[in-house]
Amino acid sequence: MITIRVDNKKLTVKEGTNLLKACLDNDIYIPNLCYVEKMSHPPASCRLCFVEIEGEKHPIPACTVKVTREIVVKTDSPGVRQLQKVALQLLLSVHHLDCRNCEANRKCALQKIAKFLNVGLKSKHLDHFLKEMEIDQRHPFLNYYPNRCVLCGRCIHVCRDRNKQAQLTFANRGFDTVISFFIKPGAPPLQCDACRACIEACPVAAILPKISN
Amino acid sequence: MNPANKVHTNSQYNALRQKAEKKRQAFLNEPVPKIHIGMATCGIAAGALDTKAAFEDALARHSVNARIHTVGCIGHCYAEPYVIIDHPDSGFPPIFYHEVTPGKAGMLTNLFLKEGDPRFEHVLGATVQNEMIPWIMDFPRFNLEKRVVMEKCGRIDPEDIDEYIAEDGYSTLADILQRSPEEIIKEIKDSGLRGRGGAGFSTGRKWELCANTSQNDKLLICNADEGDPGAYMDRTILESNPHQVLEGMIICAYAVGADKAIVYVRAEYPLAVKIITQAIQQAKELGLLGHHILGSSFDLDIDVFQGSGAFVCGEETALIRSIEGFRGMARHRPPYPVERGLWGKPTVINNVKTLATVVPVLSNGSAWYREIGTENSPGTAIFSVVGNVVHPGLVEIPMGVTLRTLIFDICGGIPGKKKFKAVQIGGPSGGCLPEELLDTPIDFDSLTETGAMMGSGGMVVMDEDTCTVDISRYFLDFTQKESCGKCTFCRIGTFHLLSILERITKGEGRDGDIEQLKQLSEDIKNGSLCGLGKTAPNPVLTSLRYFIDDYEAHIKEKRCPAMMCRPLIAYYIDLDKCARGCDACVGCCPVEAVFNTSNRKKGIDQILCVKCGECLVACPPEYDAVIKVSPPELAPILERPPEPVKKA
Ligand SMILES: Cc1cc2nc3c(=O)[nH]c(=O)nc-3n(C[C@H](O)[C@H](O)[C@H](O)COP(=O)(O)O)c2cc1C
Ligand code: SF4
Ligand code: SF4
Ligand code: FES
Q1: In a 3-state reduction of DSSP, which class is residue B320?
Q2: Sorting pLDDT into bands at 50, 70 and 90, what band is B1?
């Protein structure tokens, strides 16, 4: 067991514990979107869970740190907050803001993080951009909403976990990156049995069953 | 290794060497002229295949007996296709001819090879010192260079392993196989060699970290992804001297204890893929690869992996994912590849140039290497210098040479009496530096201090007609499209940078744009996961730092000082200069925007004009009547007279 200090709170954790998990388990909230428990390689892609660790020059995503020694962690330094706010604002700047008509309303991770960081949902500084395709309806049971998706990759992770091989993937590059299903003429039929794992893993409402309810 | 093996290694190598030298002597002694033609991708693109065919044809036609010898690239792109003709019977030294078209090839065959007239007007220089023809080593483009890594490039046939061996090739390997891995790592560490893939990490240290891991199964990857637009050093080395890269790889694998290695080369480099694959095969046949290399107890296999040409796949963690069969996306480090790399095994990843440098470092010793270059950046730097310079191409210089010497002395300066404006170093991850910084020495640390970086060695020189805002827009367009899309800052942040730059170049810049570009750039640098995102803002940050006037002119005055951004320029015709009745501009305009005024002088319809600038080029220099202005409001508006009614 190792004792670490997070924001003046002492936590005793097992060696090798993921720092983000250690904090969350001890009621220290750190904004996060892409971390799923027990991941062997957290993708560290949402760039929200930054913390400052004494002795390190720059903030580091907490989900990439395994606790192997006694460390002193700050979760709310100005440098951390700056990065978190900008990351969230960037995500919101390409997000279709229509909370009232969104299935995720009030359970949405973006709303929660925005509230925590005290960031307005509508950005004042950044222009707002949306992708052309509003709904990708090619999947037999699921609909995918590119302008809601935060590209956290949780859906891919849980699908791979459950089915060995993920039935969805990242596709395209840059701003055009989306989640896509392996549906293609000539491709082997999708192994998807509508298990809903991806739907449940999604922190927003970017993957939904075709017929709601 | 036991002494018995030592003897074995030496005797095996000596046998190869003797055979290769005999072959070379036979080639040299053959009493016929030799025509050496540069046949790397750059030469071929310039027409070297046609030149070679023209020589073959002309030799047959004129019944001249001569040997055509295909070699790699010497880096003198401005001279492509080039040939060196060695015609001892003519009494002339070997002569370097530049821009040898098929026509010239025929002419040289007839007049020089047959008649003995070297046609002085086409000569670039002689390759040896002599009384008759200027020696190329008297030209700065040649003598200010220092060839350490590219020493054999353009001199030997890359497709024939014996030519490399005859030039001392693989002798360093034979030698180091008799030394301990620790000794080799120490020598490399002592040499101060820093990785040439961009970041400049100590190569000896990297090897040591890998050698010291407890795991047995280790791997080596040669990074030949080279995704930086405009850079082609690695391709040229692979195409011109693949065996030096292989020799470096075998040495590295021996030093760190790897028994499997991969050359990761992009599929867009078909010739490099072909040549390196063939080189591996040849090395295997001679016992330089595979089981018991040169009779030692060391085994190594090298495979070629063809990448699909994504810029991010040059980043080591994305490269590893792509070999593993996944989408090329970067991963958080640590763990570094030397701890957990390809398939979870400790992996050394080195750039092509780094591995090729290992050979001269070990054959001449670390002290010799440290004599070249600077204290903290020993050795040479290889740049592909392109853009507005008289002599573009690949240049290998000792570290510490200034940008000014490189651009003006070695590469001949800016063509067309134009002024220098900026130089972009390090490609999309690098920075744009102004005239005031031309005396910066070229080394890892000095370049990083300016906000640019050594990067992989791409260098674009730009003259006064270049808009630095537009250049930043160009590079951001590249990085945004090449972002793997994984992390928030890079995927969305660079998209905002790009969109702001696009607005500014269209004349839609707003108050606050400059501050936002700066802040967002800093955030992207600090927040991104991998080197692509961390360095993507560099072109913006450096151009803001050194060329802020360009930005302000665009935003505040809607003016592009270099007159490059089309929405911010206009063309008009100066009626005082226009020659009545000359119709040069009318015919060239693709959209029929040029019209006749009442006195048959010309005017431009500003609404139709697409600002292609064709009329400016077409207008004869003696009139010089087409004027380009920015902002566009400076162009006087001429009413287009009503079209004469056509009779049916
Ligand atoms: C976006 C990006 C692209 C890169 N592309 C290349 C490349 O094309 N070739 C290369 O050798 N290194 C490239 N690198 C650097 C590699 O990650 C790695 O540091 C290098 O291959 C290590 O070799 P070295 O130690 O010999 O320099 C790239 C890095 C980044 C972040
Ligand atoms: S669909 Fe949902 S879970 Fe999947 S990447 Fe998008 S936001 Fe994440
Ligand atoms: S910085 Fe860019 S390229 Fe690197 S992981 Fe993030 S999105 Fe991918
Ligand atoms: S949760 Fe750590 S980066 Fe997303």
Answers
A1: helix
A2: very low
Bin A7: left if φ > 0, else alpha if -120 < ψ < 50, else beta: left
| CB atoms inside a 10 Å sphere around CB B199 | 16
- CB of B472 closer than 8 Å to CB of B545: no
Q: Which candidate in B312, B317, B333, B486 is best for mutational testing of the A interface (most A CBs within 10 A)? A: B486
Spatial distance between the Cα atoms of A28 and A120, rounded to a whole number of angstroms: 22
Pick from A45, A117, A126 the residue to mutate for testing the B interface (most B CBs within 10 Å). Answer: A45
Q: Which atom of ligand 3 is nearest to the CA of B312?
A: 3
Domain total for chain B? 5
Domain shared by A199 and A115, yes or no: no
CA of A145 to the centre of ligand 2 (A): 9
Domain boundary among A130, A164, A188: A130
Q: Which of A47, A59, A172 comes nearest B487 by C-beta?
A: A47
Q: Please give the average per-residue pLDDT across B499-506, as a whole number.
A: 98
What residues 519-548 of chain B have any CB closer than 8 A to a CB of chain A? 520, 523, 526-529
- Kindly state whether residues B473 and B458 are assigned to the same domain: no
What is the A46 CA–ligand 4 centroid distance (Å)? 5
Atom 25, ligand 1: residue with shortest CA distance:
B195
- Closest CB to A169 among B327, B491, B528: B327
Contacts A–B by Cβ distance under 8 A: 95
Decide: A153 in ligand 2 pocket, CB within 6 A. yes
> Chain A within 8 Å of B483 (Cβ-Cβ)?
yes
B270 and B358 in a single domain? The answer is: yes
**How is residue A189 written in tokens?**
């039929």
Confidence of residue A194 (pLDDT cuts 50, 70, 90): confident
pLDDT (0 to 100) of residue B309: 83
How far is it, in rounded angstroms, from Cα B372 to Cα B382?
A: 14
If you ran DSSP here, which 8-state letter would residue B639 be given?
Answer: P
A94 with A147, same domain: the answer is no
pLDDT at A191: 77
The alpha carbon of A151 and the centre of ligand 4 are apart by a number of angstroms equal to 12
Q: Are A133 and A140 in contact (CB under 8 A)?
A: no
- Model pTM score: 0.94
Q: What pLDDT, on a 0 to 100 scale, did the predictor assign at position B499? A: 98
Q: Do B202 and B222 sit in the same domain of this protein?
A: yes
- pLDDT exceeds 90 at position B3: no
Q: Do B327 and A170 touch (CB under 8 A)?
A: yes
Tell whether A136 is covered by a domain.
Answer: no
| Cα within 13 Å of Cα(B289), Cβ side | 24
Cβ contacts of A177 on chain B, cutoff 8 Å:
483-486, 491
Residue A19's region, left for phi above 0, alpha for psi from -120 to 50, else beta, is alpha
Amino acid present at A181: F
Residue located via tokens 């020694």:
A69
Backbone angles phi, psi at A78, to 5 degrees: -55, -40
List the residue whose alpha carbon is closest to atom 3 of ligand 2: A202
Can you name the residues that pair with B458 across neighbouring β-strands?
A: B384
Q: Which atom of ligand 4 is nearest to the CA of A34?
A: 4
- CATH code for the domain of B446: 3.10.20.600
Rounded to the nearest integer, the mean pLDDT of chain B is: 95
Same domain (yes/no): A10, A114: yes
The mean pLDDT of B122-151, rounded to a whole number, is 94
Give this complex's ipTM: 0.96
Domain enclosing residue A21, as ranges: 1-130
Percent of chain B at pLDDT > 70 equals 98
Chain segment A108-126, per-residue pLDDT in tens: 999 999 999 999 999 888 9
Residue B366: predicted pLDDT: 97
| Cα nearest neighbour of A169 on chain B | B327
Please choose from A34, A110, A151, A156 the residue to mutate so as to test ligand 2's pocket, defined by most ligand atoms within 8 A of CB.
A151
Q: Can you give the CATH number for the domain in which A194 is found?
A: 3.30.70.20
